[in-house]
Design goal:
Helix content: 25-40%
Structural class: alpha+beta
Radius of gyration: 19 Å
Order of helices and strands: EEEHEEHHEHH
Shape: globular
Strand content: 5-15%
Distance between the termini: 58 Å
């Protein structure tokens, strides 16, 4: 009888505690192919789907940051450089977090407003820094990986799709009330 063994982890890297503002400040990774897309300081592989969150989803995510609900984490392929100092192919690729980072980009570019009309540009410097820019957005940074097949496997695992709530599920939120405790 063959003994089954668990596979080796495919998500190995260093957990980083970057601030939200690090997504647009500092040195940006740059696309190596015309089919790659720039998203703030990160690069999206050509095989990543386009942004798909609705305005409402993006707004709720940004509002959640201001409400202290956190950001989740994002995953990038580490950066590596050639002898000429330029990024190697696949350096800085964003593998998970595109929807959230797109929401951040749209907010800082004043394309969406939160809480009924508050735009990034209308915040004071103190509010921007304390309540948004300096909030930690954890990142798992892989050691630079040149194997695109492995990166695609990781992407599929990270983005296997969550299960959306049905209308019946959402109705439970409105119908279910806790019984008062005596």
């Amino acid at each position: 009888m063959k003994t089954l063994q668990l596979p080796e982890p495919i998500l190995t890297g260093t957990q980083r505690s970057y601030t939200i503002s690090s997504l647009w400040q500092g040195t940006a990774a740059r696309p190596n192919q015309t089919s790659e897309r720039q998203l703030l300081n990160l690069v999206l592989p050509s095989w990543q789907r386009p942004p798909c969150w609705s305005n409402e989803q993006q707004i709720r995510f940004i509002e959640g940051i201001f409400l202290g609900l956190g950001t989740g984490f994002y995953v990038i392929n580490g950066r590596e450089y050639g002898d000429d100092g330029k990024d190697l192919p696949m350096s800085g690729w964003l593998l998970d977090g595109q929807q959230r980072i797109t929401a951040i980009a749209r907010f800082i570019n004043d394309e969406i407003a939160v809480f009924g009309g508050i735009r990034y540009s209308s915040l004071s410097v103190a509010e921007k820094r304390r309540r948004f820019e300096n909030i930690v957005f954890p990142c798992i940074e892989l050691e630079y990986q040149a194997d695109e097949t492995l990166l695609k496997t990781l992407y599929r695992r990270l983005n296997f799709s969550g299960t959306a709530h049905t209308l019946v599920d959402l109705a439970l939120l409105d119908e279910t009330r806790e019984a008062p405790q005596d």
